[in-house]
Design brief:
Blueprint lengths: L2 H15 L8 H15 L4 H10 L1 H12 L11 H21 L3 E6 L6 H17 L4 E8 L2 H9 L1 E3 H4 L4 H4 L3 E3 L7 E4 L1 H4 L2 E5 L14 E6 L8 H12 L2 E9 L12 E5 L2 E4 L37 E6 L3 H10 L6 E7 L2 H10 L4 E4 L8 H8 L7 E5 L9 H6 L4 E4 L10 H17 L7 H5 L12 E6 L5 H13 L8 E5 L6 H12 L4 E2 L14 E5 H12 L3 E6 L5 H7 L5 E6 L13 E5 L4 H11 L2
Parallel strand pairs: 1-2, 1-7, 2-6, 7-8, 11-12, 11-13, 13-14, 14-15, 16-17, 16-20, 17-19, 18-19, 20-21, 21-22
Antiparallel strand pairs: 3-5, 4-5, 8-10, 9-10
Helix pairs in contact: 1-4, 5-6, 18-19
Length: about 625
Amino acid sequence: MNTALIEAVSTIVTKATGIQLGPKQAAMIESRMVRRMLQLGIGDAEVYLTHLKNNATSETQALVSLLTTHHTHFFREFLHFEFLEKKGLPAIIAALRKEGRNTIRIWSAASSRGQEVYSLSMFLHTQLKKLAPDFKYELFGSDVDSESVTIAKNGVYRYDEIKSIPAIYAADHWVRGTGEIADFVKAKTAIRLPCSFETVNLLELETPMKGRMFDVVFCRNVFIYFNQQQIASITTNLLKHINPHGYFIIGLSESLTGLKLPVSSLAPSVYQHVQELPKVAPQPMASATKATQPPRAWQPEPTSSVQPQILRVLCVDDSPTVLTLLKRLLQKEDGFEVVATAKNGIEAALMLKQHTVDVVTLDIHMPEQNGVEYLQKNMHPKHPPVVVVSSVSREDSALGLKTLELGAVDYVEKPGMADLAERADEIRTKLRCAALSATLQENKGPSTVDKSFSKKFTIKDPEKKLRVIVGGLADRAKIVALLRQINTESLGEKPPVLILVPGSGNAIEALVTHFEGTLGFRPDLLETVPTKDQLVPYKIYIADFAKNFDGFRSTLSSRSTSVMIFRDVSKKAISRLTTWNHASFMLEDGPTTLGIPLPGRCSRIIPHTSFIYHSDEFLSEVS
């Protein structure tokens, strides 16, 4: 893209907001400017620069909205909420009682689209019932981007966004939209009414914020866009609006160290005004024989006093990749220790007899005893809190919602095992909240809004669709398990299933006999390529991969196809497989798959026990 355009846009946004945009942000600016020019129907940088010059006011606001980052989510950096619960709120409540006031006031000074403000509202609505039922709260959110402020005022978000909210705080604070906004939810009056929002530039606080005082000011994850001089200036001005007993909270990756500001550090990225030493009456001169001691300076509490306790975790999942990743995410420095793992519900029950556990992560699709079966058999009032961590959609009525009905206190959707780290903050937060759930409130099952999004998979036109399972002789037990799963768990009509066996040779007849003996029916052995309509719903077919794949691809690739590839299939075979059109490819998880790039067009790495669910999901969504 035109360098002059990037420089011009950077200059305008920096001048308008103070945010420093330089060479490090060039790629981000370029990608977003491509999108902006497409919106305007402009294909040339010089033409856009002319447009920018002729529409300076409106386009500057559009650029501010486009280039100020909106990456945030509900209950981000939960350590700060824990600090407020254990230290901050009790201290603020005591200070306000002395002053004869009962309203806590908090300012989110870089509130983006409102997730931080509504997180605080849900948090305070829950915590004050326990700490001070007679207290109220007011929340003020500000942002430099007026479009973000408008979104925050509306309090409307996609349902997928609020899934990250811990269940003990989400409660029934949201209602589903209707008609064109049926995929969205809106904050209910109880958490929306205490919130207000305005457009405010952090570099120009004097006029809009005159006379306003707060008990806590959040200004998290915004200082990375300013230089040190600006950070010092902004902080100095923000401190003017914080009551003497109040707190100033910045992002966990940010620090005020070295800026020589009049603040004391109380916890990670939590600050307070430097406390004045109490005045004491003059004392007689000390005797010459007694050593004089200088007055003790005020010392902040040790950071460790606000660190979370170590939670002991049992992780239950049949995926070795997921278990490895969970161990990496749940380290002692983050307040966790994985004391045991299990690959199914039966093992999990044994581990609970051998280990003291505070909280359990539970997968749904597992061999021998799955997550739903485990909860049905083992949940009781003294069982450790359970957080489901699964690739199953939370709103799935037969699985996701069922686990919540059976006693799981929360739910995390993993987007794919290789991407589980994307959910690290959410997983840690929900585990900590799950451990608190017994003291805050009883588990009440899925919320009203969760129930309103309840869904089932229905596979329409199964004669136009296909499942393909690719595995060798060593995978026969797993293939049998999948075929049984289709008959018992798969919903709606059943597309035909084609089993392709690489390197089978003369053993394919024996494999057919094995399936007949274990399943009670004989799959159709295909010696030649079938016609387009020869494969019919509810039927199971088997064929040699090497002999027939090219013909099958030519004849059947017009069908929407879901493909499971077992991990011992060769790279060469996978390369051939992924030339099949209209297909979703899934690779079986295993110890050797962690960190490898997905081959070809494979959409995800999964344990084989999850294939039928994801196959149902894919085939129900495609035409």
